[in-house]
Amino acid sequence: MEYNDTSLNGSETYKPYYERPETYIVPLLFALIFVIGVVGNGTLVAVFVRHKAMRNVPNTYILSLALADLLVIITCVPFTSIVYTVESWPWGESVCKISEAAKDVSIGVSVFTLTALSADRYFAIVDPLRKLHATGGSKRATRLTVATAIGIWVLAAVLATPAYIGSYLRAFVVNPTTQFHVCYPYPPQWGESYAQTMVLMRFILYYSLPLAVIALFYVLMARHLVLSTQNMPGEMQGTQRQMRARRKVALTVLAFVLVFAACFLPSHVFMMWFYYCPTAQEDYNSWWHGLRIVGFCFSFLNSCVNPIALYCTSGIFRKHFNRYLLCRSGSAHGQRGSLSLSTSRRLTSSRKTNISMVPRTTSVGRDSSIRLLNNGSNL
Q: Major place of localization (predicted)?
């Protein structure tokens, strides 16, 4: 892994792995990440697949996020959990290449999907008559969303190609009697500046530029919401409910973005410092070593916290999650009720629903609530 490429000739004396606390702490953290990530993202995928009412534009993007997280959890976490446990990479060069490429694919899909989600929320709130996003509720919007999600995966795979081709097992010599190998994504034959270039490009393409675009969308969205609240007549209750529902989805997406930014910031700070500070190898100490480990763990932690964030912000996902994992109300009855959830809402207005923001007044209100269900308020 690129997190293991720090110099072994720094100011501090080399300490064997069995004497380091991270040797025992990191595997436990990764075991927790693996269990929570598989259960959380697996449940999210199952909810999307089994319930047609959940298949809207924002949920399609969230499904893509869950699949990307499952990819990195299954293909990377079991193998990279030993980076701080054993001194040499034990899995061979093929697993090294696959692990590095899968990590880059997952990061690319995550950040590009979050950008697409932010753009979709912006157009849904600022331009609700647009037919190319969730508000349209049309097949055209669905096709465009699926095509965008597939395009994001293709782009992420293309950007991960250098990691797959270039990753190899690099030998580090500690002293005349100690040598070990690590999985390293920057081959020396590609030039001395290749590592610096890639670190900078990763920071720009996978972090700073997407977050700047997302921030712009949210600033414009917040400005529009403030102005629309001031100018909206009180009698437009249906429009107000619709705007509240869309704001709720936008806040959920914002939670995902903040989690992503927080999880990958320590890693990018360390990598930029190590590759661009001329005295990094001499200045490397216990503080930078700790930041490197925190960045390493947090970058993988991002793959299991999205379902937690969705559980905290979405009532409908929380109810489905509890039904699947906590066996509430009986699994068989719950599944049948869930499968007919969308139909039952269309057939009766007096029955209580589990979806917030659904009005229970007139037939017009019912029609509006059904449209809200298809417009992303059922996250």
A: membrane
Task: Report if residue 208 sits inside a domain.
Answer: yes
Distance from C-alpha of 327 to C-alpha of 201, rounded to nearest angstrom: 46
Q: Phi, psi (5° rounding) for residue 148?
A: -65, -45
Segment (H or E) for 171? strand 168-175
pLDDT of amino acid 275: 94
- Give me the CATH number covering residue 206: 1.20.1070.10
To 5 degrees, how large is the angle CA 8–CA 14–CA 19? 130
- Average pLDDT, integer, range 342-357: 38
The pLDDT assigned to 8 comes to: 46
Q: How many domains does the structure of the chain reveal? A: 1
- DSSP assignment, residue 137? -
Take residue 343 and report the two structure tokens written for it: 């139909």
Q: Looking at residue 14, what DSSP letter applies? A: P
> What is the pLDDT, as a whole number, of residue 128?
60
In a domain, 32, yes or no: yes
Q: Is pLDDT at 63 greater than 70 in this prediction?
A: yes
Give SS3 for 168. Answer: strand
Characterize 197-229 residue by residue with b for buried, 16 or more Cβ atoms within 10 angstroms of its Cβ, and e for exposed. ebbeebbebbbeebbeebeebbeebeeebeeee
Closest CA to 74 of 107, 38, 31: 38
Range of the domain at 263: 2-374
Q: Where are the alpha helices (DSSP H) in the chain?
A: 22-50, 57-75, 77-80, 93-126, 139-159, 161-166, 194-203, 209-231, 237-276, 280-283, 286-313, 315-325, 331-339, 341-347, 363-374
| Residue 170, helix vs strand vs coil | strand
**For residue 180, what is the DSSP state?**
E
